[in-house]
Amino acid sequence: MFGYYSCYPWTNLEGYSYLLDLYSAGEARYLLHTIFFREQDSTAAAASGLPFAILRHRTREGKRWGMLWQAAKQYGVSKLALELGGGITTYPDDIERGIRAIFSLLAFWGFLPQEYRLNPTPQDRIYFSDKREFFYAWEEGAFYPMAKPGEMFDKGERIGTWISLEVFKAVPVTAVVSGLLIYSRTRCRSHKGDTITMFLPGR
């Protein structure tokens, strides 16, 4: 049996073999990707055909996954999550690609014909450890991006502009590491501590 998930009203997964968590929220644009929670699910994660897949045990804020992850673990259910981007601003290309990823996974699991399968995520884009590098707002201000997720950058290369609301000064925002930009805040106004960008370092 297959279950899909877009919120968290229940945790009884008895009788289910697969659980697909469809996630879209927040104030940023993500590079669409698959999150898997067990190493043995990496092949299924790659079947989505999304740009990368990552093994994660904690949320963006560093907390352990909540009741859904625990329930999947308890019942031995193969669980994947699709990070489908922000919920405030939506992008037609991301929506289309997300739908095709869902169909590809359903075909991989045998629920749809194989013609829906996409080329799998490349092996060098499957991460078995969480190496994401975060850049946070250090004060009250506004962020204006000059790049979009999916682009590669060298450390120190400019990716946007920060307008300080404390000293009313514009300063460049640069890549914290050399690697792939996977997250960029879309809501300009930012509070101290908000995530501005996220990178996957190059290998």
Structural summary, described in words:
By secondary structure, the protein is an alpha/beta fold. It has 2 domains: 2-127, no CATH class; 133-201, RNA polymerase II/Efflux pump adaptor protein, barrel-sandwich hybrid domain (OB fold (Dihydrolipoamide Acetyltransferase, E2P), Beta Barrel). The protein has 3 helices and 15 strands. The strands form 3 sheets. It has a 6-stranded mixed β-sheet. A hairpin with a 5-residue loop joins strand 11 and strand 12 (170-174). It is elongated, with a radius of gyration of 18 Å. Mean pLDDT is 86; it is low at 5-9.
Give me the secondary-structure topology:
Layout: E1 2-5, E2 18-23, E3 28-30, E4 33-36, H1 42-46, E5 52-55, H2 67-75, E6 78-83, H3 92-108, E7 126-127, E8 133-136, E9 141-145, E10 152-153, E11 158-164, E12 170-174, E13 179-185, E14 189-190, E15 195-201
Parallel strand pairs: 1-2, 2-6, 4-5, 5-7
Antiparallel strand pairs: 3-13, 4-6, 8-15, 9-11, 9-14, 10-13, 11-12, 13-15
Key traits:
alpha/beta, 203 residues, OB fold (Dihydrolipoamide Acetyltransferase, E2P), elongated, 15 strands, six-stranded mixed sheet, single chain, 3 helices
